[in-house]
C-alpha cells in the first residue's frame, strides 16, 4: 500500500487501461491474431473497471454523506467527460465550421473519435444508483429489486443519462461492493483457495470459449459470468502473486490515459492503414509502441501537472 491506496487495485486498473488501449488499436486490415485478442479483451476489460469502482467507492460511501459523495463523483467523472467532449466539439467546429457543434454529448454518445467517453457518465450513474445499498438494512433485498428493474429494462442505445449502460454494468459495481464488504469483515481468509479454484475454472472456460464458436456479448448471462470470473482472477493475481510497481504507477493515472490514448494511438494506426509499414509483425510493433506511449506520456504529464499546475488535475479527474 502506498499513500493510503491499495497497490493491487491500482495494478488491476493499470492492466485494465492497457487492455483498453490495445482494444482501441483497431486499424483497418488488422491481422487475425489481433481479432482474437480483441475478442478476449472485450470479454472483461470494462467489467473490470466497474467491479473495481464498486470496491473503492464502497469506502467513500461508508465515510461520506450523499452530498459529499455526489460532488466527489461528479468532479472525478463528469467534469473530465464534459471537458473532453467540449474539446472534441471545438475540434469539429474548427474543422467543419460552427454548424458542426452539437449538444448530443449531454444525453447520448459523442460521435466518431469521442465515442469511448461513454464509460465516464455510465460509471457516474452506476455509482449514484448503488449508493443506497450501504445505508439500507434490507440491503440484500434491494439489489434483487434493483437488478430486476435494470435487467428487464428495454435496451435503447440512446437513453438520456446513459441509462442503458448503467443497466448493463451496474451488477459489476454491486458485486465489487459486496466483495469488498465480505473481505473487510474478516470473511476473506479463504480468498487464496477461492483464487486457486477460480483460476482453474477460468482456464477451463477460456479453453472452451477459444475452441468453440460462441457469440458472447456483455448482454448474455454466460458472458456476464465469464467477465466476472476473469475480473476476479486478475484481481486475485495482483493481490496474492505479484504486483509490479510499474503497473501500479500506470493504474494511478488511468483516468488521464483513458482521456488521451486515442490521440496518441492515432498516428501509429495511420502508419499501418496507409501501408507505410505492413505485415503482422509491423502491426504488432506499432501497437506495442503506441500503447506504451499512451501509458508513459500521460504519466509524465501528470507528474508535470502535479508539480506546477495541481488545479488542472480536477479537469481530468485525478486524485
Brief descriptors of the model:
mainly alpha; single chain; 319 residues
Write the layout of secondary structure elements.
Blueprint: H1 7-23, H2 32-41, H3 45-63, H4 66-96, H5 119-130, H6 141-152, H7 163-187, H8 191-210, H9 221-240, H10 245-252, H11 254-273, H12 280-308
Classify the secondary structure makeup into a structural class. mainly alpha
- List the helices and strands in order: HHHHHHHHHHHH
Task: Measure the end-to-end span.
Answer: 16 Å
Helix coverage percent = 55-70%
Q: Helical stretch count? A: 12
Largest sheet, described in full?
A: none
Sum up the overall morphology in one term: globular
What's the pLDDT, averaged over the residues?
Answer: 77
Poorly predicted ranges (pLDDT <50, ≥5 residues)? none
Rg of Cα set = 20 Å
Extended strand count: 0
- Approximate strand percentage: under 5%
InterPro entries: Acyl_transf_3_dom (IPR002656), Nod_factor_acetyltransferase (IPR052734)
Pfam family, one: Acyl_transf_3
Keywords: Acyltransferase, Membrane, Transferase, Transmembrane, Transmembrane helix
Protein name: Acyltransferase family protein
